[in-house]
Amino acid sequence: MVEMDTGVVVTRGLTKIFRDFWLREKVTAVSGLDLDVHPREVFGLLGPNGSGKSTTLKMILGLLFPTRGQIAVLGRPPTDVAVKARIGFLPEESYLYPFLDARETLDFYGRLFHQSSRQRRQRTDMLLEMVGLSAVAYRRVGEYSKGMQRRIGLAQALINDPDLLILDEPTSGMDPIGTRQFKDLIRTLAARGKTVIISSHLLADVEDVCDRVCVLYGGQKRALGRLDELLAQGGLTQITTDQLDEQSLQDVRKALAGSGRDIRQVTTPRDKLESLFLRIVEEAQAQRLVTGGVTAGGEVAEFLRGEGDQQAGVIEQLVSAAAAEPPEEQVAEPQPVPQPAPQEPEQVLDELVVSTAEGDQGPQPPTQPQRPAPQADRSVIDELLRKRGDQEQS
Hints:
Elements: E1 9-19, E2 25-37, E3 42-46, H1 53-61, E4 68-73, H2 81-84, E5 87-90, H3 102-112, H4 117-130, H5 146-157, E6 164-168, H6 176-192, E7 195-199, H7 203-209, E8 212-217, E9 220-226, H8 227-231, H9 246-257, H10 273-286, H11 314-323, H12 345-358, H13 378-393
Parallel strand pairs: 3-7, 3-8, 5-6, 6-7
Antiparallel strand pairs: 1-2, 1-4, 8-9
Helix pairs in contact: 3-4
């Protein structure tokens, strides 16, 4: 039996053989693998394509059953449902719902962990700001680039504040800004006491963040240990000093020659390309240059730094107050518009004749000269009055 208390992840004789339809052995993906991943450790799983890295991770997650051997995750079998709630997983491919936007995606995964609406809202805002997707939070995930999908995938892996974080090719497709932010996040999580397992082909990323690494080939463990031990070049000593002139170098050579040593190489230290790239980007951001891509991202989310979820503060109180119904206002009833008294037909006709004969006496704009109003045809009005008189007599 596996000793449950020796590490966060423990495997003994772990073996996975894939068989064909006739149960014949097709390929041995993992063979006799023994691993011990310690608490608060960033553990790297390295190897070429087909070396068994992804298969090992899937068995640790309980997605695949081993052919032989034993696994313990957080002191329990990997198939235990209670263990899965303490694990965050970013697969090699972003299996996300393309028709959901970033906020809906994180809200969906938060519901799977039975988080309250307030907690989901707070963590969603923090994570989107952290991975630099706040400006595109309402775009569908299916419209994201691969690097943006890796960012939202990393956010969903952290929505439950896991004790064990498993990342399969986490920086694939990410730009150097996202890669640097990912490294900072891993260091923060490890300092808080979380355990991280990383499987990656990008050796420089693994070298910057991992405490120990395991190199697989053909499903078997080929090397295991701390990076300082594995990468140290025995028999050599490196000294870094201020720039020396030729005379100073000759003096150093003479001093080394006295002890049977010599200078093998004289070079100027080089900065990393990543550092140069980040300096250029920071200068562009300081100049407020506009970009249509994702932003650099914000600080690590508060709940991932161990500060816990904040209680409802002033902002939530203001939002609650705004959501309350406003007091009913006194609406003035419309006043009835007075209607003019009805007039006799003859009076109306007389007023029409008088107003037409006198013309419009209202004020005119000073730039336009007044024109005489057109005169009404008196014969037409007389004919109307005569017809009305005939009707009354009859």
